[in-house]
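Q: How would the structure tokens look for this protein?
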Amino acid sequence: MPHPSPRLGYALIVLVAVLFGLNGGISRVAMGAGLSPEAFTTLRITGATLVFVAYAACFRRSALVRPRGSALLLVIALGLVGVLGLQLTYNVAIDRLPLGIALLIEYLAPVLVVLWVRFVRREDVRPRMWAAVALALVGLAVVSRVWNGLAFDGLGVVMALLAAICFATYFLLGEHQVQLDEHGVGTDDPLRVILWAFIAATVGMNLVQPIWATPALPATTGGLGRLDGISVNPWLVIAVVVVFGTVLPFFLGMLALRHLPATIVTVVAMLEPVIAVVLGWAWFRESLTPVQVVGAVAVLAGIVLAQTSRRVELTVPAPQ
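A: Here is the predicted structure in token form.
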């Protein structure tokens, strides 16, 4: 069995942030074809589940074996809260709040993770972690330009806070399920954990918005922004969201939790909104000011500071 490798963990979670950041723009195109947030979420989660099941059936059938006992309960919680809950609350939040405000509230998740680890698990957290989270949050507030939208919608704020809770829950439950110990032994196979979590999320989401109630989509839809003149098949866009915006980042995020603690992973994941802002500038002609660039640098500085606060045993390079 492999030993924990912090370098691999960082590479994985950075890739996850990039994929999620890019997915924001692609999802706009998909919903621009006439899909409600609920219908889009059902298609995204159900499609991802089918991909996970198909891959496991072809390459790792052991992942199709249902977890039992407490492991099953944890996987169901991961699916309903960390997958379904996060998607629904986030979609409602961004529909009722400025995107920057919604992202800032959602990315209180690293604070919640650190609080949980420190006061519930009673594990030591280096003081630098608090400074890292604070610096990253301030940077994110600057990137999001929160001062441009201060008329908050009550339900939107509640949904954004619930998204933060769901986001933190996803990483904490995932860490518990797949973290490698000092002997390189993991609690469970990351593929099996994420597969059954998505099965639970699919069942729950189809009770909220059945997939058979998906409205008919047009033959083509515009690429929006700088790509508005390009026509694409909306089903192709949804397929890209399923594979590159859902299957890969969720699975790679689980793998990252084998090599890094949730306190670190959630802070590094703050790269996502920075990438989303840059994407908005490059694709959707949204402004990107020098002040926002300074904010992005602050987020990166917070991530670097968080790296220095990780547990000592995780700094040991993995044997080759």
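The CA atoms of residues 111 and 133 lie 7 Å apart.

The chain is about 70% helix and 0% strand.

Upvote if useful.
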